[in-house]
Amino acid sequence: MLLKDRVALVTGASRGIGRAISLRFAAEGANLVICARSKPQIDQLSEEIRRGGRECLGVAASVDNEAEVNRMVEEALARFGRIDILVNNAGISNPKPFLETTMADWDEALNVNLKGIVLCTRAVLPHMLERHQGTVVNIASGAGLRGLPGSTAYAASKAAAIALTQALGDELLGQGIRMSVVCPGPIRSELLDRSGVKSFVIGSNPATVLEMEDVVGMVLFLASDLSGRVSSQIFVVRSNNRW
Description:
The protein is an alpha/beta fold.
């Protein structure tokens, strides 16, 4: 088991990549703290993880709400005593042409996709620094490296998440904390099915779409000891699509 008895906090865990990461981490021996805004979905996943023999604390919280994030981390530390791994996965996408993207849309994208990473990392990091040990994996997007037409707010927020990872990762060098960012291309998921950019990104070739496990495998690698002292790095996961 690659994560035996580690404690991992995964945000945006109720569905999609976050759910898949949580289940894979549990299968690799980790105990989980999972969060999302939907309490019923979090409760359901928590029970599934516990049935598999691992401990799990499910918390309903919005990552852009500082009080809720701090409460979540306090509950996690009270339950497990430490957090070894933080996966900042929570994110939203609301594709619209630039002139139809309202300032409220921009605020929402930046609040969840960037501020959420900031708040969760600020809450967890002091405890990791006390132990001189910890791993943070941020989930961004290929759209943060090559802006995606029709998704300017999403692309800009993911680009900011990439820059944050590199800057903070370098700031933490030598302090026992590793931080990297995963930038997936389009993934077969409910979110992609709802996306207004699906046909533009994929065209007529379904081979351009990643499977969930393609991304989960990279996150597991970075969270485990297999990745050594790798930090401040960008890991792009894609098939034959530039995003």
